[in-house]
Design goal:
The complex is a heterodimer of chains A (285) and B (441).
Chain A (H helix, E strand, L loop, with lengths): L1 H26 L6 H9 L13 H9 L12 H12 L9 E5 L20 H6 L16 H5 L5 E3 L5 E3 L9 H5 L5 E5 L5 E3 L7 H7 L9 H5 L5 E4 L2 E4 L9 H5 L5 E3 L6 H16 L1
Helix pairs in contact in A: 2-3, 2-4
Chain B lengths: L24 E2 L5 E5 L9 E2 L8 E2 L4 E4 L8 E2 L4 E9 L7 E8 L20 H10 L12 H4 L10 E6 L8 H8 L1 H15 L3 E7 L3 H10 L6 E6 L8 H9 L14 E5 H12 L6 E7 L7 E6 L4 H7 L7 E6 L6 E3 L12 E6 L16 H5 L6 H9 L3 H6 L10 H5 L6 H17 L1
Helix pairs in contact in B: 1-4, 3-5, 4-7, 10-13
The chains are: A alpha+beta (285), B alpha/beta (441).
């Protein structure tokens, strides 16, 4: 008999609470746009911040309220842009995939260190001390500020002392470019077409050639030879306009410092290490 | 004789025996000097209008000036011809505008260099003007313009002037030798400061590992009523302003405050001699005593060197460096700055040149903090170095500010004792720089 009382009492309490909650849910209901949740579902949800908003939810809200374009998620790329547009019933806008590109190829084999740096492992701190330990005061110090900034872990410091960016996986979010104190990383449309000058030194030719084997010495040979007139000199540095470049390769042949490469043939870590090994062998021989 | 000690600090190996018995010798006049236009804390100088490439200058002639109050003019340290004005590498790590002078071999003084007259007849304002015009800065290493420290605000009464002869940095013996060789000049300089500040008494603080200097100074002040010598316990950083004041007067400089706030002014022994020279002979600050030492130097010495002489030339005059030299430091081993190249000029604040060999230094890998709190015990200003460093590492500069990072004077005790070899002082320096940057914004 007792057990029936207990069941009845608890059942009644449960019913009262249930009623209370049901009323509260009606009275204090918060209007949410179901589209925000739907958009959030199709986003990568890594909260990298590359879109300019604090996280994926904030971006989703902004898209739903029309504050930003549906292709604003850079790491998501084409697929995400399409999915977001579908959720919102918008037309799919054109999306160009982007990729981070390092404008320095002065690895251990190409430049020397001026002194042994034993301070804090941070490019900004090291670069502030006597212009950095590298012979070139514009070159990559390889202490990995970009590596730490990358939310997708697609950058690592290679054995040759420079960051290696995984072009396949890079989303082009641009956080590494912001983290680099020497502004050596640029975000470019992902493509194999076009040639680039892989150097950022604004020093004069004489200083550059002393500091680095593959630095732009501002000799202007490429400017003169380019049939497309796509190359101009800016602050002792040759700059190629990718829109004009038609990959004829004349500049590569002319460049005395071997600084210009086709974008699909950026000197790799392996090649750099092989060159260093060869040098060691020839020195010991 | 007070023998109280401050809390914290460390006892490094002093290595002073290499040079402490060597009399100061004058280095031969260099063929060329490169004089940076910023050799002090405060506004950098601009070259005077008359100073252009090709112009002849005399020794002691003013070549750089700034309109800022916290600044000190720059003078030519040799007679010769200006051959270049442009950026040149600087011991502090960033290139600074510098004036290059090639010697004419005559080493003649400028006409402007003449005695200022009797101390009794000079008014405090006149003394301040003389000190400023002579370009005198704190020679202990901080290079704070000396006339600023002689110009307290009207509402602050200064009663004690302290002369800092602690020289707590290992290896350095320049101040020690100055005390032995120029005690009379130091006391005169102290009297000048007392007069300029209207102070009541002067105190000369010397660490007890320099017994001969204490005896010499005590003898010379035996006639003086208001000047005393204090024997300080040997412990690093005894020569730091706040530590010295605390031990010598029992007063504590408030956090974020200045010695002025508690009625004390503190000058280095070298500064006292420079002030004496400026008053008696009209000589501006164009040369200083520095210690060239370390196992990497062939002939360690205490040298009187002209400002602007290249460190490489100073080392050459000491027989050059040994092949085993690994690290070159300007200043002492605790607070000095490592140099990537000896191609930097000696400046007013260069108290020593130290060459360490592979026996003295090794590259240590930092490991995580083990929370032993050795740095907390060693910190002479009672900060939490490990907490500030961690805040700086995670870019939490607001938190670093709350932990009073700005009160750190970078003595290096925390880095010295850290068993994990964490670069505590470096991180705190970064935090300090960021805090100052945020305040300017």
């Amino acid at each position: 008999m007792l057990i029936l009382y207990a069941i009845a009492t608890l059942g009644l309490i449960g019913l009262l609470f249930g009623l209370f909650l049901a009323i509260v849910a009606r009275v204090f209901t918060v209007e949410t746009d179901p589209r925000v949740e739907a958009v959030k579902e199709v986003l990568p949800n890594v909260n990298c911040g590359a879109c300019g908003y604090a996280g994926c939810v904030n971006f989703a809200e902004a898209v739903v309220h029309g504050e930003t374009a549906s292709n604003g998620c850079i790491p998501g790329g084409k697929d995400t842009a399409k999915a977001v547009a579908e959720v919102l019933g918008q037309e799919v806008t054109e999306h160009t995939p982007l990729v981070a590109t390092l404008f320095c190829i002065g690895d251990y084999g190409k430049t020397a260190d001026r002194f042994i740096y034993e301070g804090i492992e941070d490019c900004a701190v090291a670069g502030d001390f006597n212009g950095g330990f590298k012979a070139c005061s514009y070159g990559c110090l390889g202490l990995g500020n970009c590596v730490r900034a990358c939310p997708f872990e697609v950058i690592r410091i290679g054995l040759h002392g420079l960051p290696v960016i995984d072009r396949e996986k890079c989303s082009g979010c641009g956080l590494c470019a912001k983290a680099c104190p020497r502004l050596l990383i640029k975000i470019l449309p992902l493509s194999d077409d076009g040639h680039l000058v892989f150097c950022s030194s604004q020093d004069r030719g004489k200083t550059v050639s002393k500091a680095c084997k593959v630095g732009c010495i501002a000799c202007k040979a490429c400017v003169k030879v380019c049939p497309q007139e796509a190359i101009v000199m800016e602050d002792n540095l040759a700059v190629i306009d990718l829109a004009k470049c038609n990959d004829c390769g004349e500049c590569v042949l002319k460049c005395p410092a071997n600084t210009i490469h086709k974008r699909s043939a950026i000197p790799s870590e392996g090649a750099a290490l092989a060159a260093i090994a060869e040098e060691v062998v020839s020195e010991t021989a | 004789m007070s023998n109280t000690v401050f809390k914290g600090g460390v006892h490094p190996d002093y290595h002073k025996e290499m040079t402490d018995s060597m009399a100061v010798t004058e280095m031969k006049v260099p063929e060329r000097v490169i004089i940076p236009l910023q050799q002090h804390i405060g506004a950098p100088c601009e070259p005077l209008e008359a100073i252009v490439v090709g112009v002849p200058v005399k020794k002691g002639q003013k070549i750089g000036e700034s309109s800022g109050f916290v600044s000190a003019p720059i003078h030519a340290s040799i007679s010769g011809i200006v051959t270049a004005i442009g950026p040149y590498s600087h011991p502090l790590g960033r290139p600074v505008q510098a004036i290059t002078i090639e010697s004419d071999g005559e080493d003649l003084w400028d006409d402007q260099v003449k005695p200022a007259g009797e101390l009794e007849k000079l008014k405090p304002e006149e003394i301040r003007k003389i000190v400023r015009e002579a370009g005198i800065v704190g020679l202990g290493g901080a290079t704070f313009p000396a006339h600023v420290k002689l110009s307290p605000p009207a509402d602050k009464k200064i009663d004690i002037v302290i002369i800092n002869g602690a020289e707590c940095e290992p290896y350095l013996t320049a101040d020690h030798r100055v005390m032995l060789e120029k005690p009379e000049e130091i006391v005169f300089g102290l009297k000048v400061m007392i007069k300029a500040l209207g102070a009541e008494k002067g105190v000369i603080g010397i660490e007890d590992n320099k017994d001969d200097a204490i005896r010499v100074m005590e003898q010379i002040i035996s006639e003086e009523e208001n000047i005393s010598v204090i024997r300080l316990h040997t412990k690093y950083p005894q020569g730091a302003e706040k530590m010295l004041i605390q031990v010598a007067t029992g007063r504590k400089v408030p956090a974020g405050g200045l010695p002025l706030d508690i009625g004390v002014v503190n000058h280095n022994v070298g500064t006292a001699v420079a002030i004496t020279n400026a008053l008696r002979e009209g000589k501006p600050l164009i040369e200083r005593v520095l210690t060239v030492t370390g196992a990497g130097v062939n002939r360690p010495a205490n040298l009187l060197v002209r400002v602007g002489t290249l460190v490489s030339e100073v080392l050459e005059s000491c027989g050059g460096l040994k092949d085993t030299t690994q690290k070159l430091i300007i200043g002492g081993p605790m607070m000095g700055l490592a140099q990537p190249s000896p191609d930097v000029p000696v400046i007013k604040g260069t108290s020593g040149i130290l060459a360490l060999t592979d026996q003295d230094v090794y590259l240590a890998e930092s490991s995580p903090c083990i929370r032993c709190a050795k740095c907390v015990d060693a910190c002479p200003v009672q900060l939490l170095p490990t907490a500030i460093a961690q805040a700086a590492e995670h870019e939490l500069f607001k938190q670093a500010e709350k932990l009073h990072a700005a009160d750190c004077f970078e003595c290096g005790c925390c880095s010295y004792v850290c068993p994990s070899k964490i670069l505590l002082t470096q991180w705190i320096r970064i935090a300090k720089a960021e805090i100052i940057k945020a305040k300017k914004r």
